Amino acid sequence: MSRIGKMPIEIPKGVKIAFADYNLSVQGPNGALARQIMTLVSLDISETCIEVKRCDDSTAARAAHGLTRTLINNMVVGVTNGFKRDLEINGVGYRAEVKGKDLVLALGYSHPVNFPIPDGITIDVEKMTKLSVKGFDKELVGQTAAKIRSFRSPEPYKGKGIKYADETILRKAGKTGKK
């Protein structure tokens, strides 16, 4: 049995869960999320917790067991607390600012990079070189942070570019001079 899949998901106060025809919807103080659940697992929903059970012992059902539990837990945590991903910008003249519903990045190109902020996501620019991507959908927060990072990935020689705050960039030695 899956170690993650057999753990129950606690439902905090203020969170409403509806499940019908393998469609699960979770509503909380931060927002509402919906997801279609695989037919390989079943849900036992009580007032205080959700338990995910698999229908049989096939390989696909065992694989879906822990995954489904984690996805549902991310939905519950997202509508109560939300998720946050921090980014850092390194480089001379590299900066970011929010203008309306767009994130404007100066990343050493001949033009500024305009990134439209998706619905459900808020981006805070603490300094001109530190960003916080916040939202209640974990997948959308991660996808948005990865898209911003892809505009100028960190390079290994000087470390210039956009990186996650907890990411370590492996540095390479530069060219050696001729003797």
Q: What's the total number of strands?
A: 13
Overall residue-averaged pLDDT value: 90
State the distance separating the first and last CA atoms: 63 Å
According to CATH, the homologous superfamily of the largest domain is: Ribosomal protein L6
CATH architectural grouping of the largest domain: Alpha-Beta Complex
| Gyration radius over CA | 21 Å
Largest sheet: 4 strands, antiparallel
Strand portion, in percent? Answer: 35-45%
Structural class: alpha+beta
CATH fold description of the largest domain: Outer Surface Protein A, domain 3
| CATH class category name of the largest domain | Alpha Beta
Low-pLDDT residue spans = none
Q: Kindly report the spatial arrangement of strands forming the biggest sheet.
A: 11-12-7-13
SSE arrangement, N to C: EEEEEEHEEEEEEHE
Count up the helices: 2
Q: How many discrete domains?
A: 2
Shape: elongated
**Helix proportion of residues, in percent?**
10-25%
Protein architecture, described:
The chain is α+β, with helices and mostly antiparallel strands and 179 residues long. It folds into 2 domains: 9-80, Ribosomal protein L6 (Outer Surface Protein A, domain 3); 83-164, Ribosomal protein L6 (Outer Surface Protein A, domain 3). It has helices spanning 59-80, 138-150; strands at residues 9-10, 16-20, 23-27, 32-36, 41-45, 49-54, 83-90, 95-99, 102-106, 113-116, 121-127, 130-135, 161-164. It has a 4-stranded antiparallel sheet, covered by helices on one side. A 3-stranded antiparallel sheet has the order 1-6-5. The chain has a 3-stranded antiparallel sheet with strand order 2-3-4. Strand 5 and strand 6 form a beta hairpin. The radius of gyration is 21 Å and the shape is elongated. The mean pLDDT is 90.
